[in-house]
Fold this protein.
Amino acid sequence: MLLAEFESPEDLVRAVKQLRLLGHEDVETYTPHAVEELEALLPRPRLPWIAGIVGFLAAGGAYLLQWYLACVDYPLDVGGRPAHSPLAFVPIAFELGLLAASLTAVVGLFVGCGLPRLWRPIFEADGFERAAVDGFFIALPETAARDEARRALWATGARRVVAFGLLAVLLTGCDFQRMTDQRRPEPQVPPRGSVARGTVRSESSPPVTRALLARGRDRYTIFCAPCHGVLGDANTAIADRMTLRRPRSLQDEGTRAKAPEELYQVVKGGFGLMSSYEAQLPIEDRWAVAHYVKALQLSQSAPRAEVPGADVPGAEEKRP
Amino acid sequence: MRYWLAATIGVVLLAAYFLVMPRDALAAYLSAYAFTWSIALGALTLAMIGRLTEARWYMENARRPTEALVATIPLLAILFAPIALGLSHLYPWVWTVDPARASFLSTGFFLARSTLYLATWATLAVLLRQSPRTVSAVGLPLVGLTTTFAAFDWIMSLEPQWSSAAFGLYVWTGGFQAALALIVLRAPRRESALAKLLLTASIFWAYIAYSQGFIIWIAQIPRETSWYVARTSGAWTWVLVTLVLARFAVPFLALLPYAWKRRARVQVAVSVLVIGGHALDMHWLVAPAVHGRFAFGLVHLAALVALSSFLLGAAEEEQEVVTA
């Protein structure tokens, strides 16, 4: 399988359109929220029709059942009304039809999504957990024309394209169910001193580049600015309403004194009422935000002499 | 212009008929008035819901046609005059006094109540422009109460011995559904949101209509069933079947599938059917109380043309003002 990640829903929609033009019909997408435009591109599900037909059949069946009971099997005289009283059969037919239609829809949803299954090979792809946060993914089955598909994904503006889970995909062909019939071995205790996979990762800062600061600005504006403000001065509508404990201004003395490493820890672990952004911001993004905050502090408190172009005539002194 | 021409022709025909058979002419006028009045009130309800929720489908698409219909309410209040003047021709409680109901169904109190309803709606319709959200929040319960009681007074009291608590709601939901259908036809864009709402309104109408009928059927009290006996005898049965088809069965099946409710042609066809159904519905409520046997003639058509033309003409002028 080929997995491509996109920055925004718009990019994803554009990519799906282009891939379909190229003849890729079996495109699968993974997004953190429903993308309305995407729904129009994907084939209409058959489930609503199935649920509708089941509902109508159940309503008809419920009507027949009542008719059989009231007219054939056990006729009762109720206040002299005719045994076959359609008006009286409506509520039960309606309710049972509705029940059958909604049950079909729910069960059909589970079956369609393969929901009781908790693991899929695609979960092993690196960074795929971002599909639940802010990543927009396209998965393409690996066909004969692998290079062509890869080129197509790059051409549509993907941020990155990975081939994933060759082994995992092969393993899905195996019949794991058979294992349940075997004798269960004792659980294995990992050897002393062993470390679980994926727990050791370098958390050191990447080199500070213009691109990193741009990424930091982007992430800061999305995740931090709502409370701390675009300028970092905590002058926001949200901060104004948090009267008991205001979000901190990032321009005050205490925060200015903090090193990027300390800011990194705040982003990762949270601070006071601020929760951890570990899930939303992967390691590189945390560093990007930390360095961007330092740059933001510098930009708001630099002495006049140090500002490039401050001696240009007409540049007026302006205090924050 | 063509609306005012049609309205004039309708009014002339109706006036001529009034000179010969005043009772029939007034009954035709009442059912046509119930048709236009309930549509305008349905539009007022939708406008208030739309203003309170500030939903995108309302603010960007349905708002203009809806509020143009709302703006016709002051004119409709004036058009109540023929009914107020012809009370004695229409309502049996004017000449046969029933001691149990005499205090409520007396000419003076009836006119006072009617004035109160009309004044409330006209005030709300005018004020809705100034401060939409406040007026909507205050107005929705007021509209609910006044519409219910207006339906009791103007239509249900044609047969004073009969009563049903759901009757006001029946007229209101019917008017709401027909107003939605008219707005679907007049909205700048054909959006699925309006079609979905029309589907909901159709189901709601069927629910209220069924509940009222079922409760009366199961209780089997002659005083209550007589109303339905009159409306299911002879050709009226077929009117009832048409009503169920036009107001519920066809809209329900046509607007249920995903693709169909998004098709402009389906939306237009269903809306026309629903509006026609509502006109027939009001006729089915009023005429059996006056004529007994099935009747639909030139006089009913003239009244319907006259009042619908007034409604559409005023709404059109209003919409031009709003758009300009």
